[in-house]
Task: structure prediction
Amino acid sequence: MQQLDNQEILMKLKSQKQFWDIKKKVKQGFSDQQKIGINDIQKFAQSCEIEDQLIKLISHILKKSKKRETLKEDQIEFLNTSKIKWTELLFKNLDIVHQKAKNQEEDDTNTDSKLYIYDEKNLLAFLQTFKQQQPSVLYQNVQFQSNKLLNINIPLKSSQQILDKYQYILLQEELPEEKINKIRKSIENEHLDIELEKIAQTYVPNGERCLLYLKYFEFDHQETVLQQNFAKLQKECQNQLFIDELLEIDGHEISEDTFYFVFQEQILTCLKCFIRDKSIKENIRIQLQNGMKKEHAEFQLPVAGFFPFKNISKYVAPLCYLSTKIHIIYALFKEFFCRYFCFLHAISSEYNSILSLCMQIEEIVSTRSPKLFHHLKVIGCDTLKLIIHQLIYCFVGDMDPPHILTIYDQILGHDSLEILVILCVGFLNKYKPKLLLAKNYENVQQIFQELREDKFQELVQFAYKQ
Amino acid sequence: MLIISIRLQQDYSSNLKFKTSFRNCILEAFKRRLWKETEGDDWDIMWAEKEWIHEVLDHTHLQSNQKINHFRNHYELTRKDLMIKNFKRYKKNLEREGKSEEANNYNFFPLTFHLPSEYPIFFEEFKRQSANSDTKTAWIMKPIGKSQGKGIFIFNKIQQISQWKNTLRYNQDNPQAEAYIVQKYIADPLLIGGKKFDMRIYLLCTSYQPLTLYLYRTGFARFTHHRYDSEDISNTYVHLTNVAIQKTSDNYDEKLGGKWNLQTLKLYLMTKYGQEKVAETFYNIQMLMIRSLQAVQKIIINDKHCFELYGFDILLDAQLKPWLLEVNASPSMTSNTPVDFELKCGLLDDVFTIIDLEKVLTGNEEQIGGFDLICKGNPIKLPINSTFTTYLGAFNNRQQQLKKIAKSTAIRLAQTYSEGQMKAIEVGSKGQKEKEEKDKQMRSSSKGPQAMQNGSNVNNKSNNLTKQNTIMKRNTTNLPALGTMQNKSNVKRQPLQNAGQQQQIQQSQSNSSKKNNPNEDSMLSANQKLQKLTQESKINQFQPYKQQSQYNEVMGMGGGSRNLQKNEE
Result:
């Protein structure tokens, strides 16, 4: 992590509009005095909160200057070896998929089977194997723990902490028109992360969301750069890869959703560019798979550094509701994936990782709804198996796009995926009465095949219902 | 009571007869109403092709009860050239009358010329436009007499029509000369997913004097299957959204039919542009439709036998300004998906309800099924504190609304019936004259069962619908109301979809109707009364979930607490 010296900080400060506003304020405060001492300024700054603002500004600059490095190694050695095993497994799957695709080409009649390298169930099944592999000295004698699907000794936040963190959503009041307009204005004028995060945490008016995201990712004045980068990637797409075929199959699936079929082409273009984007490797916060060298070019990891998985289109789809410009959709998707969604596919002990989120959900459900937890276990449909799809794909396809974007707001606002834990718990609570009546896995599936309508606020409310 | 209603239902075998040559949703909608098909002239309602109107209507004497689906000279609005001519003329008249503000509102159609008659003016304009702009202005040629996108082409060089000009078509003396209109092409349409789309919106006109218009809440957006490219003007797949054209495209997906319903479109637009902008756009669309009809109001021959369901084709440009492409007198009633089928059958069913062959409506209804009354003589302005600027694209609560109407009609008719009976008893043995009067009353009240029948029909249908819904899963997601919010009462305005809640309302209705003074009751119209009742019960029953409605308000969504309440029960 590189550090800035004072001179550099000052330079960066000067480029901020807020810095000049503060300076103007100070000047006005001392307009009638001739001699000004440092102490006077300090006192004055303290009295009218200028100091706070300045501290915020400097911390913002420092935060921005930090270059986040991709997490390659986990603190827990066992997870590192698991990641290698996972990658090996995926390479094997790729071989199988490749073979299948070849066979299909030869035999036109059999084109139904959907090809993908892995899906959420594969990932969960892999995570499940951890239990057997790790000598669980810690939990050997603890009976109640054995009910859970995942029992790994990794540092976890207390589930109460997460519940407390998002409880404020419950108390949100309806906003009057003036307040909404005020928020609109502040999105237009504000550049500070903290402020933008605060807005995202509480309420983003429709129509302003794209601007907020762009500002947060510091893209707001870079449209031409984004456009050029995207055009370059599009050129590279002319070289067909085997992975493209898989992405196309994936695109067909998203086109079955009424809300997104219009965007099928755009989504596919974004994904094709994505797997060819070299900058992903540098920007992604966590390495998903450990690359292996193979002789044949087709069997290597894509340039992005990881294999695309089933339903990857789902992450792009809601963003198509934000802009008509494809390079902006792509830029937003790239940031969202590199900052947040990558954790949903990473084998890691990080707070945001799929492992942690899964364990949090199990923890909350088993303590707060033990009856449901036990019932699901008995009928052979564990809590996690039930919820993994919604968790990994951020409820895309389960909620209408505006609700999904509210989830995206929350993820960005808290720089964390923990909102998904809350929503999954809420989801289970919502269908709890029906689930308790289910006698087998087929019953459970029936429940979710019915027409249903889940909403963000509603699921949050259910999450806190005792 | 139950026995009576069963008896009445048994008595009710519809006497109404229909005639139509169509074999699509129109036939299905008629059949669903249990009306009988006839080949002869004893029909009560006829859904005719336009040609029949032109050829036969003028020579036919219609019975007072007969209804037909076109006005005699509808082509004044629905033929591309005449429509523009009438708009231009009306605009001029307004200017002459000094109503320049209203005249300026007639800016929703592109610059248009009639060919061959206006070729010289067009040529001048073409030259002027080409000289003024760096990029070549594109123009679109549409043959006047054809539909479904046939014969349409786009050009930006005058040479491109010279070939056409030299053919038989252009020769004015040639009797076969085919008339065209040429329009300035709207080059910056709003693109969604890189694709062009237009909207099909349904408007029902039941009378031109006074101008009575009903706007259907649901319509759809039709997408082209290819990415839009303003440079490539020769590829019709890119530019024309007509289903007939897109069907021939290689990658036409039958399952989705390349359509979004209006609610989904509104949801998209609201997410992208914010609700104020979208509310304005949809209001402008509504006004555009009213203005179109106002422009031809004095030209169309009004006839109490006639009604017309128009299909407006509207395009949004990148600034969300609506443009009228054309008005169809016979919008397609053929469906290409199950969702489409239900939409069209529902639409037609509501048309039949509004036409009121059964004569059970009061004529004051503001909403009938999915149709909202938007003009009766003058455009209807929603109250200032109203939550919506227009109901276009709002949640289509037709099922609930129809039940409501059936109920209010039943109450009203039952009252008329009992009043008649009371009178009959009072008058009793008095002279013959009164007896005749009593008979009259009885006759009128015998229409009651039809309303009841209507109600039960609706119930059956809704059952069928829910079954289908579950099969179609997300394709038919009942979108929440998407009207534009201006105050919090939106949530209250939402139909109560919860069975339990409805039961409670019914109870409170019956309670409060018991309490009400019967004299006062008879003074209120059935509709007002029903409104009053539901309002009372809503105030007592409705407890909005504040936290949840905050989000709902933004999206103009109501009824969000539906599932929550269900579970709590």
Remarks:
- Chain A touches chain B through 53 residues (CB under 8 Å).
- Residues 206-344 of chain A form one domain.
- The two ends of chain A are 45 Å apart (CA to CA).
